[in-house]
From TrEMBL:
<dbReference type="Pfam" id="PF04034">
    <property type="entry name" value="Ribo_biogen_C"/>
</dbReference>
<dbReference type="InterPro" id="IPR022968">
    <property type="entry name" value="Tsr3-like"/>
</dbReference>
<feature type="domain" description="RNase L inhibitor RLI-like possible metal-binding">
    <location>
        <begin position="26"/>
        <end position="59"/>
    </location>
</feature>
<keyword id="KW-0698">rRNA processing</keyword>
<dbReference type="GO" id="GO:0030490">
    <property type="term" value="P:maturation of SSU-rRNA"/>
</dbReference>
<feature type="binding site">
    <location>
        <position position="89"/>
    </location>
    <ligand>
        <name>S-adenosyl-L-methionine</name>
    </ligand>
</feature>
<feature type="domain" description="16S/18S rRNA aminocarboxypropyltransferase Tsr3 C-terminal">
    <location>
        <begin position="63"/>
        <end position="189"/>
    </location>
</feature>
<dbReference type="GO" id="GO:0106388">
    <property type="term" value="F:rRNA small subunit aminocarboxypropyltransferase activity"/>
</dbReference>
<dbReference type="InterPro" id="IPR007177">
    <property type="entry name" value="Tsr3_C"/>
</dbReference>
<feature type="region of interest" description="Disordered">
    <location>
        <begin position="203"/>
        <end position="273"/>
    </location>
</feature>
<dbReference type="GO" id="GO:0005737">
    <property type="term" value="C:cytoplasm"/>
</dbReference>
<keyword id="KW-0539">Nucleus</keyword>
<feature type="binding site">
    <location>
        <position position="112"/>
    </location>
    <ligand>
        <name>S-adenosyl-L-methionine</name>
    </ligand>
</feature>
<feature type="compositionally biased region" description="Low complexity">
    <location>
        <begin position="219"/>
        <end position="231"/>
    </location>
</feature>
<keyword id="KW-0949">S-adenosyl-L-methionine</keyword>
<dbReference type="GO" id="GO:0000455">
    <property type="term" value="P:enzyme-directed rRNA pseudouridine synthesis"/>
</dbReference>
<dbReference type="GO" id="GO:1904047">
    <property type="term" value="F:S-adenosyl-L-methionine binding"/>
</dbReference>
Length: 273
């Protein structure tokens, strides 16, 4: 389905010359060409005329949603959004270290707070959103909720992003600034972790609820790609399989993997409820 103009945008803004014709707000990306064009959400938005490409060396005066950010996007960034819209870095997560962050970006570089991806490549994975999800999250948090939904109508799975994240997105959109978002996010994660641990203890305590343990399947936990043939998902798997260089790295890897496992389980629990 192609995007429609919602006609609901009445913000005070300064978008002259930046608006792609097919979407009511200016969206942009630096495209590093790492990804399979058929599986890439940024490329899809570009084909649909919803986003424009920026050159390396060109800065953006809107909200730059980037792993290079230091604080989360918040409603306080609305003024930046209304000056230049939002932009993302279209690249592979596995090659993020190769991005020349000093040559892209802008004055308002922001992380996203905790949210869960629902795209087919990273479904259920926290923090690692694709470009469309990242832009939609940014729009929603700064107050363009209808436009965020409109953008995601371009993807078959787009509604799932709001099914899973709406409660959190509303919490963030009600915050005053980045500090409040950090507090709310921390609270939410602590509550979720506590209820996950409680649930796990209950399940483990009640052995009769687990069936015949000898017949339990072995679950490979790190598999993010399994059935997907997409280039980026294969990169993700390769990234996980890279050799470990020294014991410090190996300790850090182990800690990160433990963290990842915990959050993946927490998310699984959340998706079931
Ligand atoms: C790494 S690319 C992967 C894009 C993917 N190939 C696709 O199909 O859209 C995703 C981009 O979305 C933004 N993004 C996603 N999750 C983010 C987060 N938690 N914090 C900041 N930026 C994020 C960043 O601009 C990031 O570079």
């Amino acid at each position: 389905m192609g995007p429609r103009n919602s006609g609901k945008f009445h913000g005070k803004h300064n978008f002259k010359g930046q608006m792609p014709s097919k979407f009511p707000l200016p969206l942009a990306m630096w495209d590093f060409g790492h990804c399979n064009p058929n599986a890439c959400s940024g490329k899809r938005l570009e084909r649909l005329g919803c986003i424009r490409s920026l050159r390396i060396g060109q800065k953006n005066k809107g909200v730059v949603v980037t792993p290079n950010g230091k604080s989360p996007v918040s409603p306080a960034d609305r003024v930046f959004f209304d000056n230049g819209g939002a932009s993302v870095v279209e690249c592979s997560w596995a090659k993020i270290d190769e991005i020349p962050f000093s040559r892209i970006g802008g004055r308002c570089e922001r992380l996203l707070p905790y949210l869960v991806a629902t795209n087919p490549i990273n479904y259920g994975r926290p923090w690692r959103l694709n470009c469309a999800e990242a832009l939609a999250a940014c729009m929603y948090i700064v107050g363009y909720k209808d436009e965020a939904r409109l953008l995601m109508e371009n993807f078959k799975w787009g509604h799932a992003f709001f099914d899973v994240n709406e409660e959190l997105l509303d919490i963030y959109a009600d915050c005053k600034d980045a500090d409040e978002i950090q507090i709310k996010q921390k609270q939410y994660l602590e509550d979720m972790e506590a209820s996950y641990r409680e649930q796990r203890n209950t399940d483990q305590g009640d052995i009769w609820t687990q069936g015949n343990l000898n017949h339990k399947p072995v679950v490979a936990d790190n598999d993010t790609s399994s059935s997907s043939s997409d280039a980026e998902s294969n990169e993700e798997v390769n990234a996980v399989k890279e050799p470990i260089q020294n014991s410090e790295d190996s300790q850090q890897d182990a800690n990160e993997e433990e963290d990842d496992d915990l959050w993946r389980n927490v998310v699984r629990m959340k998706l079931k409820t």
